[in-house]
Amino acid sequence: MIADIRTILWKEWKDVLTQGGPRAKWYPLVFLAIFCVFMPLQTGSAWVETPVSLGFYVMIPIILVVTWVADSFAGERERGTLETLLATRLSDRAILFGKIAAVAGFAWGMTLAAFFTGLVAVNIAHWTGQIVLYKPSIALGCVGLSFLAATLSANAGILVSLRAATVRQAQQTLGLAVFAVAWIPILGINLIPDAWKAYLAELLKSGDFTLVVLIVVTSLLILDIVLLGAAIARFQRTRLILD
Amino acid sequence: MPEPAICTQNLTRDFDTVRAVDNLSLEIPQGIIFGFLGPNGSGKTTTIRLLLGLLEPTGGRAEVLGCDVRTQSGAIRERTGALLEQVGLYERLSAEDNLEFFGRVYRLSKDERRDRINELLTRLGLIDRRKEMVRDWSRGMKQKLAVARALLHRPQLIFLDEPTAGLDPIAAASLRDDLKTLAKREGVTVFMNTHNLPEAEKLCDRVGVIREGRLLAVDHPDRLRAKNGGPKVDIFGQGFNEHVLTLLRMQPAVSSIETQNGHLSIHLNEETDVAPLINLMVGAGVQVEEIRKGKTSLDEVFLTLMEEVK
Fold first, then answer.
1. pLDDT by residue (tens digit) across B69-111?
2. A15 to chain B: which residues are within 8 Å by CB?
3. Average pLDDT, whole number, for chain B?
4. How far apart are CA A131 and CA A121, in angstroms?
5. In whole angstroms, what is the distance from residue A205 CA to residue A217 CA?
6. How much is the ipTM here?
7. What count of other Cβ atoms lies within 10 Å of the Cβ of residue B148?
8. Do A87 and B85 touch (CB under 8 A)?
9. What is the CATH number of domain B229-309?
10. Minimal Cα–Cα distance from A113 to chain B, Å?
């Protein structure tokens, strides 16, 4: 199945890189230049020494996934290629995992590129005579959380794309989902009991950063598994044909 | 005796309120081009989807290349190729990349992919344009590329769902020629849905006629014509009065007679010498200007079968 997943990956990446014509090959570099050089340069050494970059490295994969994932199945359906793909020897799992891996892999790969580009940018611009590195906990948090954010948003996006009749419909649903993800925590904090708020504030003040990251990682992992399970259950050839 | 390429027994598929395929029993031997004829919405596409294991049958059973469509659909798709209702090409990829992708899907080695892609694109006259994005191509070229894709992994059986639909007559004729040549050369069995009867007549070794999900007839186009029409002779001229028509109807070789647009069509029971009939007509005062011997077209057979169902 790994070879089949690689085949889907090959097609998806080839397809997305040619989507905007010959110029599309330069888009990732433009992205890196703007978001992964400019931001670290503005923030200085705090970019690698404090958790300030953590949120950024979680958001990058989500943004990248959302811009692409709507097209995965809804695009195939809209352009009339889905039935032909389903009529091949590829297994359901190979197609599904290939699609998820393509989106999540691209987003996570770009995030890692941003991670290292930021490090290089900070070292060059704010050279102090010795190389500055990310703190191990921050580095691990960035790499791990960005991976989970990429797979989580890819799983959620694939699920939406599987159900959507058109790319536009999938994009609209995903737009609402991102809006909800961004605003529900803010609203939620106002709604939770004061005792919980006090506990959370204490947790953050105590500086037990590892515990916070562990809680986030565990939550994301559980959500990831649930969404992947839902996508596997939803991906049925017969259902997709009738859709 | 080799196993049939396709064998169905009472294959049935219901949708909410419609029976799309109704107790279809069919046996298609290997190595032939089979034409599945029927009007729009008659169940042709659903039949292909059932045979590819893309839809579950509601009842009955079907085997494709010896594999059960319910339990071995993966094995069926491994050994078959398909050009479905929609051409199914990735328009943002080049022709070569489209085939490269499907070559990888069917696990052809790098060398096999390169040789096979070159071979098929050359045979179809597309080799010089292999680097172009498919979205810039004409519909005829896309259909040809889709045929190449269906044949790429040397399947034993290919399904074609109205391959020439929407093509201009020249592109359609060109695709038909290529299809026939390639199918014979590769020894592949072809299951082709069409409502283009002249196309079925030119391409198919055997045809099945379906309407409202039910199989009305299945046979070689010639035998189908013989059963439902047979040979005929068209006579152009003057003097086709009732006396002449009565005389002709009394002849044992004559099956039926009809007059239309100033000419007389005589349907014969079997291939026979028409000279005695012409002598008879001339003797009865008919002025014969032109005689055309021919066969009942598949169009006429098809319409007859459709009328019988009504």
1. 999 999 999 999 999 988 999 998 999 999 999 999 999 999 9
2. 90, 92-93
3. 88
4. 11
5. 19
6. 0.83
7. 25
8. no
9. 3.30.70.980
10. 26
Domain boundary assignment for chain B: 6-219, 229-309
In this complex, the residue of A18, A87, A91 whose CB is nearest that of residue B92 is: A18
Contact A83 B89 (CB under 8 A): no
**One-letter amino acid of B294:** G
Where residue A129 falls (left for φ over 0; alpha for ψ -120 to 50; beta otherwise) is: left
Which residue of A lies nearest to B52 if distances are taken between CA atoms? A87
Half-sphere exposure of A145 (CA within 13 A, CB side): 24
Helix H, strand E, coil C: the string for B260-308 is: ECCEEEEEECCCCCCHHHHHHHHHCCCEEEEEEEEECCHHHHHHHHHHH
Q: What is the number of alpha carbons within 13 Å of residue B221 lying toward its C-beta?
A: 21
- Adjacency order of strands within the sheet including B231-238: B254-260, B263-268, B231-238, B287-295
Q: Which of A7, A89, A237 sits opposite B54 (nearest CB)?
A: A237
pLDDT digits (tens, 9 = 90+) for A91-127: 999 999 999 999 999 999 988 988 888 888 888 877 7
Would you state the structure tokens that stand for residue A147, as one six-digit string? 């991976």
Class of domain B6-219: alpha beta
